[in-house]
Amino acid sequence: MSLNSPIIAPSILSADFAKLGDEVRVVLESGADWIHFDVMDNHYVPNLTIGPLVCEAIRPHAQKNGKPAMIDVHLMVEPVDRIVPDFAKAGANLISFHPEASTHVHRTLSLIKDNGCQAGLVLNPTSPIHLLDHALDQIDLVLLMSVNPGFGGQSFIPSTLTKITQVRKMLDQYRKTNGRSIRLEVDGGIKVDNIAAIAKAGADTFVAGSAIFGKPNYRDVIEAMHKEIASSI
C-alpha cells in the first residue's frame, strides 16, 4: 500500500469523442482527479488516436475546483522526442513514455522536464522492472501497463499484481533513501471489482476507461472505486 493519496485518472480514450470537452468537464466534476490522455501512433502500437491539438482543445475544460486539472499524457509513440514539446505547449502536465521507444531514455526525460512537465516511464506487461534502475532520480511516476498497449477495453492481466508489489518495494526504498515520493500508476482493465486488489498491491494512481465512461453515472463509479481503495488499506 502506498503512502500517496489515491488518484483516479479516467482515460478519455473511452469517452464520447463527439463531445469530448463536456466529457472531460463532467468526469472531473464527478470526482475524477486527473485526465489520462492516451496517444497512439500506428507505429509503436497498432492503433491511431489523438495528438497535441486535442490536448490543447480539452485544456480549458480540464478544471478541478476552479484550477487546472492534471492532464496525464501517455505516449505510445516512436520516436518520442519530436512530440514532447508539442504536448507540453498544448497543456500537458505529466508526460510518460516507453523506454523501448526512446534511443536515449535520460535525454527524453530531461527534455520532458526542460519543457516544464513531470516525467514518467511506462513498463509493458513483459518489460522488466530493472529498466527503472537508473531513471528514478528523473521520474515522478511509474506507469505499469496491466494490458498490452494499443487498444482500450482489455482485461486486466493478473500477473501485474506481482509486478506492482515489486515496483512498490523499489519506490518505497527509493523514498527512504532520497526522501522523494514517486507515484505508481496502473493502466488496463481496472474496474470496481478489482481496484482494491490493485491498491493493496501498492498502486496509488488508477487509470480507468470503459469502466467509467461506459457507465451512465460517472460519479457512482468513481465513488465506488474510492470506497474499494479505502477498504484495501
Outline the structure in words.
By secondary structure, the chain is α/β, with parallel strands linked by helices. It has a single domain, classed as TIM Barrel, CATH 3.20.20. It contains eight helices and ten strands. The strands form two sheets. An eight-stranded parallel β-sheet has the order 1-10-9-8-7-6-5-2. A hairpin with a 2-residue loop joins strand 3 and strand 4. Helix 2 packs parallel to helix 3 (84-90) and helix 6 crosses helix 8 (218-231). It starts with 6 loop residues before the first strand and ends with a helix. The model has no long low-confidence stretch (mean pLDDT 95).
Task: Please give the oligomerization state of what you see.
Answer: single chain
End-to-end CA span = 7 Å
Major beta sheet, specifics?
A: 8 strands, parallel
Mean pLDDT: 95
Order of helices and strands: EHEHEEEHEHEEHEHEHH
What CATH calls the topology is TIM Barrel
Return residue spans where pLDDT drops below 50 for at least 5 consecutive residues.
none
**Any guess at the CATH architecture?**
Alpha-Beta Barrel
As a percent range, the share of strand residues is: 15-25%
Percentage of residues assigned to helices: 25-40%
Question: What is the CATH first-level class name?
Answer: Alpha Beta
Rg measurement, Å = 16 Å
